[in-house]
Known about the structure:
Largest sheet of chain A: 2 strands, antiparallel
Order of helices and strands of chain A: EHHHHHHHHHHHHHHE
Strand content of chain A: under 5%
Low-confidence stretches of chain A: none
Radius of gyration of chain B: 21 Å
Number of helices of chain B: 16
Largest sheet of chain B: none
Radius of gyration of chain A: 22 Å
Oligomer: heterodimer
Amino acid sequence: MWRLEPRSEPSLRMQVLTPVLAVVLTLILGAILFAALGKNPVAAMRIIFVDPLLDSYARTELLVKGSPLVLIAVGLAVGFRAGVWNIGAEGQFIMGAVAASAVALALYDQPAVWLLPAMGVAGAAAGFLWAMIPAWLKIRFSANEILVSLMLVYVAQQFLIAMVSGPLRDPQGFNFPLSRTFHDSAVLPIVIEGTRVHVGVFITLFVAGLAFFMMRNHVVGFRIRLMGDAPRAARFAGVRPGAIVVTCMGLSGALAGLAGMFEAAGPAQQLAPSLPIGYGFTAIIVAFLGRLDPVGILLAGLVMALTYVGGETAQYSLGIPAAANETFRGMLLFALLSVNILVHYRLVPARRRTAR
Amino acid sequence: MDLSALDPVALIASLIVAATPLVLAGIGELVVEKSGVLNLGVEGMMIVGAIAGFAAAVGTGNPFLGLVTAAAAGMLLALVFGLLTQFLLANQVATGLALTMVGLGLAALIGQPYAGIKPPGSPRLDIPHVSDLPVVGPLLFSHDAMVYVALALVIATWLFLGRSRAGLVLRAVGENHDAAHSLGYPVVRIRLYAIAFGGACAGLGGAYLSLIRVPQWTEGMTAGAGWIALALVVFASWKPWRVLFGALLFGGITTLQLNTQALNINPAIPAGALLLAAGLIWLVASLSASRAAGSPLVMLLTGAVVLAFGLIYPRMQIGSAWLSMAPYLVTILVLVLISSDRTRAALSAPHSLGRLFHPSS
């Protein structure tokens, strides 16, 4: 038999190796899942994980799908580092999309260069404010931020439905719960001709870089890490827990809101109830897969984008249901959490005991 | 306003039906948390229970087998959580979330061929003469069997945790796992039992939704019920009877929400009445325990203002999406009210809740 022996300090090698190991484990589990569904597991894996890398258009789609995941995950990871659990990024994403769409539709007849920046500010502000609700309730009433932020996802989903069937509905849309298509000036410029890669992808890269330096070189990043690793020490060092909660929730909320604006003004170009497809929840997995580090999250976001791009292809070419991809992503988080123990513990044969 | 369509007996009966899944899932999670483990995967276990129970009941034509399958499925999923958190020392919050994601995906996957099918009916309690009594009969003696099972489970949990030696050990593990370990209690094994029990209860709660309450399978049909059950445990201050009380409160809100839509009345009327009633009960409870009465008074006044607004404009309507927010907003409100009393929240939460345990550390 084997037993677990604590390491004196976390293994650096394992920190890099575990995400890779988790992906490999998930591939095996996923193959079993697809085989159980009566699909050819090898073909499914090739379509999901290899084909999108070979096709040039699919490669650009990876950027389109990966960008919101990375943008949200970077914000969430900052909070997770501090032990602030913002689980409601999906809700903040929705509120950001709604606010940005409201600005775009209200100024439909006044196209201007400042329209897109205004939409971005509105989206980020809406996500920020939506995240401030659980933050404030946590600080003022010590209400659990996990449950509050999650409940607000359901509220935001209903709010989106209320908006697209009410004030933001297309007047010429035959009463369908959809907004009208945005004016050209409210659509994010395409960067690579003939694809859907928009400016937002580059802003995401820029934000990830900023987050990297904030966590590594700025005192705010240090305080956040200190708060997560040693809350008591942080308090003695003069770190105010409330300020950390506001920073983490606010940052992740604003980034999720911005991602919502990118989604509405980028690929979707209108507000619809089908706009949120769970990026806010998948981003949690991306954050963990990237080991809560902005650079790791960039890579993790691309891997996760494969399951969206390749997953879609697998849906129509092999008839693998969308729910299978969802299960697949959940299993990745499971695999990741189970191999994570190798960072802090090492497996040793149970017999070998040191003499006292 | 046509109130003749309101049958108080039928209303209370539908309230009980709405509360039962929350009682089941809530009481299971209460035991898990009492053992010091925070399993955030209730939603995932519920929805897998809902589809597993549904599939088994449709396949065999036997609703009882469906419920058993649902409990087994919930337990199986919970044990995956147990394996990760107890043996592989994974973070409980993240693992619970993973459980929810996998559960939702898995349920949607299994459930595809089952959309639009009607499950076999479940037996109701029917005692000759007694069930036919006016008012008392339909209120107390003619529900489906699971209502009584849920009630029995609350009583059993209360007796187990408060009156039995095993329950005391479980609570000791939840309060201080290191001390319990030093006394020779198998911390990990006890927690695994609790986790399995919680999973079975959540599975049953899910199956109650798909087999009895709705009864049908639709993707994502739990719609946050698992999360509400989690909030319920906090609301109940980790006490079994209060889970029952809280579930009835939430059942009442769902029933009111549905009936407000059907009756075309201003939702401010039921909302205000509810706030008023809850504020009153809370005020009496606070005064009798000689605690500060500030927050209950605020609630009471808010209720009065909302009710007055509703009575002035009885016909005002809002879209159904706004009404659907009600259960989630009430959950937040209740969480805030309970958590704001810091000393009480800190005293009643199991002390080792959510903390990792490894014998070597």
